[in-house]
């Protein structure tokens, strides 16, 4: 069939008009009608004012008190603020903070929060990532470098609360379960047959995080995570302002200040781990008991973290870099909330906290220096001495 030049031109124009009409019909609106009702039906706009009238309900929803929320909002608001545009009003800093805290408190998917808050799925994803980064940047910038006097105060708390002298903190690591990252092979695959990122933490006597290391892949050897950490490096090169050795209470036994860990960690002059279990040696058992008792603070710290932020109760479905930031955010919020809430310290049942949803690191053997054995021996002798035994009877 032959067409003239004029006929072909008319056919081309008709096809262009049809294509333009089809594209226009597919894009019927720039914002879905559901999201346009955010200020009338969104969870923040309908619920927040009611929560303000009930402190208990507010705490259950945001996992912090009203006063703590207000203080956090005040610190973050300048960094969360967005400008209104000609087309729409910006989401307020308070609503952005509410979305992020609700995600951390429940572990709900971005899609679930998207529907409840009447926000786009991509908007929720962006708000969570941006707000977590701002929380970490702003709150961690306020954390001072540990001084010698601050370390001494931590050690005093361990002696008063846990009857363990010269202790600067309890060390432990946990596997945070994540969804298998694409094209990652076995990098994040751990001994529990799940995919994970490791959180290594040093906790003080009051269950606050002093030091955290996040990002080690689940397949990494657990002792190796500590050996490559900045904490180990600074402990060995003497840049942490650790106090000088001092006599253990009521004795002439001069011992170093130490951190304590379980069998997953190597024995060092600055790091005490248990003696072999089931050895039949009574003095070993006493030392292990006292060390295990003092280590409850780190187990309690992880337990409080996972009870407060239920995102740890399931598999975190985000890329590893985002998970690292989520973990950092929950840890700094943990410290912030405990510092700024009077009743926070006693609001958890400490007897049930050790049943954490996070998996422990594997026990690890290994060699140690003769000096490390001698330092541990000093604490063993102290705990089996009349002074050490009497301190326990007063506990």
From TrEMBL:
Q: Where are the transmembrane segments?
A: none
- Name a Pfam family for this protein: DDE_Tnp_4
Tell me one GO molecular function of this protein. metal ion binding
Q: Which cofactor does it need?
A: a divalent metal cation
Report the residue ranges that make up the DDE Tnp4 domain in this protein. 171-335
GO CC annotation terms, alphabetical: nucleus
**Where does it live in the cell?**
Nucleus
**Entry superkingdom:** Eukaryota
Q: Metal-binding: is it a keyword of this entry? A: yes
List keywords of the entry alphabetically.
Hydrolase, Metal-binding, Nuclease, Nucleus
* Homology family: Belongs to the HARBI1 family.
**PANTHER family the UniProt entry points to:** NUCLEASE HARBI1-LIKE PROTEIN, PTHR22930
Q: What is this protein called?
A: DDE Tnp4 domain-containing protein
Source species: Parnassius mnemosyne
């Amino acid at each position: 069939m032959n067409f003239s030049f004029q006929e072909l031109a008319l056919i081309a124009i008709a096809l262009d008009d049809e294509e333009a009409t089809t594209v226009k019909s597919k894009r019927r609106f720039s914002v879905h009608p559901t999201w346009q009702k955010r200020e009338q039906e969104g969870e923040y706009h309908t619920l927040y004012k009611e929560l303000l009238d009930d402190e208990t309900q507010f705490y259950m929803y945001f996992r912090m008190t009203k006063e703590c929320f207000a203080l956090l909002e005040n610190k973050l608001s300048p960094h969360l603020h967005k400008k209104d545009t000609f087309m729409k009003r910006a989401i307020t800093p308070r609503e952005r903070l509410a979305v992020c805290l609700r995600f951390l408190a429940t572990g709900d998917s971005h899609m679930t929060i998207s529907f409840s808050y009447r926000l786009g799925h991509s908007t929720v994803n962006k708000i969570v990532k941006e707000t977590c980064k701002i929380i970490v940047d702003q709150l961690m910038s306020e954390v001072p470098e540990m001084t010698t006097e601050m370390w001494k105060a931590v050690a005093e708390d361990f002696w008063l609360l846990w009857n363990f002298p010269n202790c600067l903190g309890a060390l432990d690591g946990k596997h945070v379960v994540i969804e298998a990252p694409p094209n990652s092979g076995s990098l994040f695959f751990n001994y529990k047959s799940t995919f994970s990122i490791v959180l290594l933490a040093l906790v003080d006597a009051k269950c606050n995080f002093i030091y955290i290391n996040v990002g080690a892949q689940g397949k990494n050897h657990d002792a190796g995570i500590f050996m490559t950490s900045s904490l180990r490096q600074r402990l060995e090169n003497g840049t942490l302002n650790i106090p000088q050795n001092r006599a253990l209470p009521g004795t002439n036994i001069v011992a170093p200040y130490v951190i304590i860990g379980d069998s997953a960690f190597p024995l060092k002059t600055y790091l005490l781990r248990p003696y072999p279990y089931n050895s039949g040696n009574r003095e070993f058992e006493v030392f292990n008991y006292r060390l295990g008792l003092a280590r409850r603070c780190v187990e309690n710290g992880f337990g409080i973290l996972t009870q407060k932020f239920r995102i740890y109760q399931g598999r975190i479905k985000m890329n590893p870099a985002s998970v690292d930031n989520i973990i950092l955010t929950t840890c700094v919020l943990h410290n912030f909330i405990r510092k700024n809430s009077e009743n926070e310290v006693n609001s958890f049942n400490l007897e049930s906290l050790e049943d954490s949803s996070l998996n422990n690191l594997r026990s690890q053997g290994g060699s140690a220096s003769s000096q490390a054995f001698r330092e541990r021996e000093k604490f063993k002798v102290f705990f089996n001495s009349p002074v050490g035994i009497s301190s326990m009877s007063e506990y």
